[in-house]
Amino acid sequence: MRFRHFLTCLSLLSMSACTTGCKEYDNSEGFARAQLPAYTETGANTLGCVLGAQKWTVLGSQQLKGPLGSSWQPNMLQVYRASAVPPLLTVRGAMTGVRNSIEFYDREISFTFLLSDTLGGLRLLGADTVRMPPGQRAESMEAIDLIPYRGYRSTARRPVRLLIRKLDRQERIVSGTFSGVLYSATDSLAVTDGRFDVRY
Description:
Oligomer: single chain
Number of strands: 13
Radius of gyration: 20 Å
């Protein structure tokens, strides 16, 4: 009796997953109207820039597939604080454009920087700009284009300039601006008008 009840619940669960996850998802109109978030210093949890020719901000949803079907999960701004001294902060987000459940644009950006206000707040995000102990990440920025898969990264010779304009340790808010160029093995990607305002 219990096993039959379990099978009934399992079949209903898979049916509900399909009815909610199998609908066509389309955010192409919102993608076409995407704007950069205003620059703020309030811990608004925003991130945006112009990436190549595209205004980029955390937007859209990504399709997650599992044993009970697939579903569209909204892209979220992610902030990670490493317990180094001084601490490292990583800010990451994705922008996905989807038309009739087919992704036509999917780029993720992330940057990692020291959470300190020395040097007037200026950070040079390049692979070798900060000497770190083995196993610890350096200050850097990268973008991943998932259609087609291609990675871009800041370099030590031409680092991305990130300026921390506010660091409030009591309220745990950090805000700033960034710009520069990211490089792949064969190509480059300009980053302009970058701004972020996050709580950590």
